[in-house]
Each structure stands twice: as C-alpha cells, then as structure tokens.
C-alpha cells in the first residue's frame, strides 16, 4: 500500500502538476506576460516562489521513495538550478521516470525501515510514520501551494486539475 | 492502514488547523484587524474564502470516513452557517470527536466498499481508490489552502504548524 500511496500517487500528482503548468503557460501567452513572472511568484515575501515549490515537490517524491526503499544511492541528482518552465518540466519528468523504476517488491520493508534526515539529529521515524505523517502531507502541500500561487495570479485551474482523473467504475447490473 | 491514513491523520491535521487558527487570531489581535477580515479572505476572486476552506476540510474528513466505513447515517450535521472563529472551532471539534468514535475494526471492508457521490452519476470508486486518490489529496488541499490564505495575509505560520509533531524515536544503542 505504501507503494500505491507514494510511487503511484506521487507520479499521478506530478503529472497533474505538469498539466497545471501547461495551463499556466497558455495563460502567460494569452496575457502576454513572461512565464518567468509566474515562475517567480510567491504568496508571501518570505515564502518560496513557484520554482522552488516545484523543486521541493519533486524532491519530496524522489527522496521520500528513496528513503522508504532504502535506495538513497539510486536517486537522480538535481542541483536546483532550474529557471525556465522547460527545465522544470525536465526535472518533473526525471522524477516520474525515477519513480516508475520502482515496483511493489521494493517496498517489502518500507513500513519498518528507519528513516532519518541530517536535521533530525540522529532521531528517526519508521517508514510507515514517515510516509503517512511527513512525505505524503508534504507532497500535497507543495503541489497545492504551486497551484495556489498560479490561482492567485489568475490562471484558470480547478480542483480537477489538482486531483487528476478518477478510475470511476460503472456498476454491473 | 486506511484507518491510520484517515481517522488518525485527518484528526491530527484538523488539530494542526486549530493551532494555525490560534496563530491567526493572535495575529489579528496584534494587528488590530477584525478576525472576520482573515476569515473572509481568499487568494482569488472566484476561489472559496477561508471559512469555506475550513468547512470543506471538515466535510472531507467527516464524509470521507463515513463513506469508507459505510456509516453515512452517523455523521453529525453541519449547515455551513459558521461566520466566526468560535463557530469554526466548534465545527472542527465536532468532526474530531466524530472521528475519534471510529476504530480500526470499522475499516474491515473499507478498501473494497463501493463509494459514490450524487454527482458521479451512478459510478463508483473502491474505498481504496477513493481514500488514496480523492479523500486524502482533498483533505490536504483544503488545509494547505487555508494555510496559504493566512500566509498570504502575513500570519506567521510555517511548515511545522502544518505538519504537526512527529513521533521521532531515539535509536537504542
């Protein structure tokens, strides 16, 4: 289940973010504003801008899955140097490709693995706790904040763009 | 696991929202602005204001758990009439109390139950799909948007307020 919650759902959300950025690009073209204006927008002076929100969303997915599977050494490297929409798309694509390389089997010990970060000063969370209380809420936080920055600037995005398609089923009668 | 992801984690997030609202109240008092100004703020003219974001966050938690457990008839009723911080706090408390009434056993069939909504025109999702692709992303969306509205208005909230406390453990040496 942690596989579905992270690899599968994080990929879906990064694809949704791609679609949201497509709408932002169309909006910028229509309004004749430089896309860089949107990419450098933020909701508060001391908050990260859209570029950084996208970078952190990508890292939350990438590092989250790497930590849960104990495969930190397989992560693609990203230097946080993106300045254009095209560079951000490449980063998103790189993370989706990385996620796609994992299978459910890689998550055999994910729930019980000890997850730590340098700033946690030696303390740890179990993978189960880390996924549910840290990685998942963080991923949605940064995707929603990216969405909110664009929404605030007038880009016509809605909840469906954020959630993406649902696997609706028709009842068998 | 769906119990932890919804009942436990949604309660935690609603408590975090309470703490964020405490900071908003202190900010309003310090700035000598009416709390109603913050409660009626929004990030875009055609987006829901803070009151509505809080109401929807509450409903996402309440209805989500009711649907997953097949207990729609046990839900407390809320008429979306809240206008003050105190009324919103009561609503949040009412939902947390409702969530606390569930146990893991109530989720025995949650993964496979068919979940539908009037607007889905007869189609359904399995409880597993509904939780992972709908209820959970929605809950975080509305909590983050509430946070973003306050952040945009200058309230000093940070990621820790959103995530809440982590159950860090010290390694046994």
From TrEMBL, chains A, B:
<dbReference type="InterPro" id="IPR034660">
    <property type="entry name" value="DinB/YfiT-like"/>
</dbReference>
<dbReference type="Pfam" id="PF09351">
    <property type="entry name" value="DUF1993"/>
</dbReference>
<dbReference type="InterPro" id="IPR018531">
    <property type="entry name" value="DUF1993"/>
</dbReference>
<protein>
    <submittedName>
        <fullName>DUF1993 domain-containing protein</fullName>
    </submittedName>
</protein>
């Amino acid at each position: 289940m942690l596989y579905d919650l992270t690899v599968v759902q994080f990929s879906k959300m990064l694809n949704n973010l791609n679609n949201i950025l497509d709408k932002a690009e169309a909006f910028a073209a229509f309004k004749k504003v430089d896309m860089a204006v949107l990419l450098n927008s933020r909701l508060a002076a001391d908050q990260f801008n859209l570029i950084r929100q996208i970078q952190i969303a990508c890292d939350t997915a990438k590092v989250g899955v790497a930590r849960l599977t104990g495969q930190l050494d397989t992560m693609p490297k990203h230097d946080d140097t993106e300045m254009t929409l095209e560079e951000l798309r490449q980063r998103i694509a790189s993370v989706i490709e990385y996620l796609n390389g994992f299978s459910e089997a890689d998550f055999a010990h994910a729930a019980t693995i000890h997850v730590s970060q340098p700033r946690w000063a030696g303390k740890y969370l179990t993978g189960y706790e880390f996924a549910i209380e840290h990685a998942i809420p963080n991923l949605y936080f940064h995707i929603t904040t990216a969405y909110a920055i664009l929404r605030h600037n007038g880009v016509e995005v809605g909840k469906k763009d954020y959630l993406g398609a649902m696997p609706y089923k028709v009842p068998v009668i």
